[in-house]
Specification:
heterodimer, A: about 290 residues, mainly alpha, MetI-like fold, B: about 325 residues, alpha/beta, 4-stranded antiparallel β-sheet, 11 helices, 12 strands
């Protein structure tokens, strides 16, 4: 038997890991890379805002209210209380990105766990988990976020909780669908047949094969989450003034749209650009994570 | 092959009925009788071939043996130890392993083939899993230095099936269930893998349960053949005997559906027509009577029991034609030619 096989030409063995392969494929995607750079710039500027030498985002000036972008000393103008827009937009990124990303990260872990359990165990466990998830699906996500936030009251932590609850059901559903698909494959049966218990089979064989679709789906949720978080702040049940946050800024500058439309548009542009970049990056990630190409 | 030999694997009255749930409350509407009272013995070093149409319960029987499907009734005994009483499922799985039909679906796409093979040995806590895996890779004909770090999609179907065989052997099992293990391979690769299986059987003293729909392949590798129809055993006989005489009308139609290699000897008899009846509601009496050319009234009411054709014969059949006391008009005369 050995000599039969020896004639087959040898392909160079693929020794590198899965994630380095994903990264190298992602690097070849120009759109995804541009989006990644923009997002990195946003995140870094938000993270290092205090060290960038910006104006105080809370310090207003009655004289310099609603200055147009390009005014000396205020590159992007000032808001309705005369606070520097550039500084507020960069500082605003901190909260906005935090409430935009954190709920999705939490929902990814909680929903992913629930979905994998439901999909792998099946039976009555699956029925219980998925029927509860279905109840949440009965409400539109915006309505659900508003309802929970409204009940909990305004505040960063409460927005975080309500948005996490909103995103657990869709992540669970995707995780359950992917897991039950993998569960029916023969390699799971083969692993069970070697005497491994459920936990070992899930850890070694299931997670690696279901993680990337769940992960890609979760990345696509971040843009929705950012818009929802901004929406909550806009409605006054998210972040409270005077904290800089893009959704809240959009709300307060709304009345300035006739005086200085550029100013009113700026927070919206930030939300739009960030969510667009997140969407395009998750698209790129989806194709980069496909091993069989 | 003497009758006094203690069988290595003994299956008694194995049953599996799958519920069909429906309605708003998900109540059981009906039962699919996938495997209904299957019994057989396999001696150490023997290969038992299981044949039958699609949906006759071959694969369910295989999965019942290894506990991938929970059995409803019946006993599985390995080396005199009954599963669930004397031996745990985990321990049984060390001694019975399985090779699946789909060589690609049965390997984790995110795992190197070395890790896939070594997994079972790691789980069972055997010493030196990697060394075992590498030795087996070499034994099934894949150089471990070149193939160990590869992923399943980088291998051909035949190579993958060799890996699956190595994976099944890593725990040094006694019995290997081969569920259509060569059916998806092309003919030349199939022959190589069959030869490999024969070599491994001799080298490691393995016992095979070989499930296939290809009678020629089964004949090549098996010592005895078990024919299943709608979840039941209809005939069980040594290969030579069943090749000489197919005692059950169903077995006969299965054999007549096999294309002849000789163009002058074309199959003239019409093979079996129609589909098997629905296993949800199998016909009463003999399950084959709806398609049998020799069915009489007794076949519609009385269920034939599997037994030796003549006293002491290793050729067993479940058909009223062979039982002089059955009440069939042609009882005891056998299947007409």
């Amino acid at each position: 038997m050995v000599q039969v096989i020896a004639d087959i030409p040898v392909v160079p063995p693929a020794q590198r890991g899965y994630w380095s392969g994903v990264l190298s494929r992602l690097k070849r995607d120009p759109v995804a890379m541009i989006c990644a750079v923009i997002l990195a710039a946003l995140v870094l500027s938000a993270a290092f805002a205090p060290w960038l030498g910006l104006a105080d985002p809370y310090q207003g000036s009655m004289i310099a209210r609603l200055a147009a972008p390009g005014t000396p000393g205020h590159l992007l103008g000032t808001d309705e209380q005369g606070r520097d827009m550039l500084s507020r937009l960069i500082y605003g990124g901190r909260l906005t990105l935090f409430i935009g990303l954190m709920p999705v990260v939490l929902a990814f872990f909680i929903g992913g766990t629930l979905g994998i359990i439901a999909g792998y165990v099946g039976g009555i466990t699956n029925t219980i988990i998925m029927r509860v998830v279905d109840v949440f699906f009965a409400f539109p996500s915006v309505l659900l976020a508003i309802a929970i936030s409204g009940a909990l009251g305004a505040g960063v932590l409460n927005s975080l909780v309500s948005l996490t609850i909103v995103f657990i059901p869709p992540v669970t559903r995707v995780a359950e669908a992917v897991t039950s698909g993998v569960r029916s494959l023969d390699y799971i049966d083969a692993a069970r047949a070697s005497g491994a218990n459920a936990l070992t089979v899930i850890r070694v064989h299931v997670i690696g094969n279901v993680l990337s679709p769940i992960f890609v789906y979760a990345t696509s949720l971040t843009s929705v989450c950012m818009i929802l978080a901004a929406g909550l702040s806009f409605l006054g049940i998210g972040v409270r003034p005077p904290e800089p946050e893009w959704g809240l800024m959009l709300n307060t500058l709304r009345s300035a749209i006739y005086v200085n439309p550029w100013l009113a548009a700026l927070p919206g542009v930030m939300i739009f650009a960030t969510s667009l970049c997140l969407n395009l990056l998750s698209d790129g990630l989806r194709s980069a994570m496909n091993v069989r190409d | 092959m003497s009758a006094t030999d203690q069988p290595l694997l003994s299956v008694r009255d194995l049953k599996k009925h799958f519920p069909i749930k429906g309605g708003i409350l998900g109540r059981t509407q009906a039962m699919v009788q996938a495997v209904d009272g299957v019994s057989f013995d396999v001696r150490a070093g023997e290969t038992l071939g299981i044949v039958g149409e699609s949906g006759c319960g071959k694969s369910t029987t295989a999965k019942l043996l290894i506990g991938l499907v929970d059995r409803d009734e019946g006993d599985i005994e390995l080396g005199g130890k009954t599963l669930g009483r004397d031996i745990s499922l985990r321990a049984l799985r060390r001694d019975i392993q399985m090779v699946f039909q789909d060589s690609y679906a049965s390997l984790n796409p995110r795992m190197t083939i070395l890790d896939s093979i070594a997994f079972g040995a790691r789980v069972q806590g055997l010493d030196d899993p990697v060394g075992r895996a590498r030795r087996l890779m070499a034994r099934v004909g894949l150089d471990p230095d070149r193939f160990a770090g590869r992923y399943p999609h980088e291998l051909s179907g035949g190579q993958r099936q060799r890996i699956n065989i190595a994976r099944a052997l890593v725990m040094s099992p006694k019995v290997v269930v081969l569920d259509e293990a060569v059916s998806a391979l092309d003919k030349s690769v199939e022959a190589q893998v069959l030869n490999l299986l024969s070599d491994l059987r001799a080298e490691f003293g393995l016992t095979y349960i070989f499930i296939s729909h290809d009678l020629n392949v089964v004949r090549y590798i098996s010592d005895r053949i078990l024919v299943m129809y709608l979840g039941e055993v209809v005939e069980l006989a040594p290969v030579d005997m069943i090749w000489a005489e197919q005692a059950h009308p169903y077995t006969r139609s299965l054999f007549s559906a096999m294309p002849s290699m000789d163009p002058d000897n074309r199959t003239q008899k019409p093979p079996l027509t129609g589909d098997p009846p629905n296993p949800i509601d199998p016909p009463p009496g003999c399950r084959f009577h709806t398609r049998c050319a020799f069915a009489s009234d007794v076949c519609k009411t009385r269920h034939p029991v599997l037994g030796p054709m003549v006293q002491g014969s290793p050729h067993w059949v479940a058909c009223h034609l062979h039982d002089p006391a059955s009440g069939h008009p042609r009882a005891g005369q056998g299947v007409p030619a």
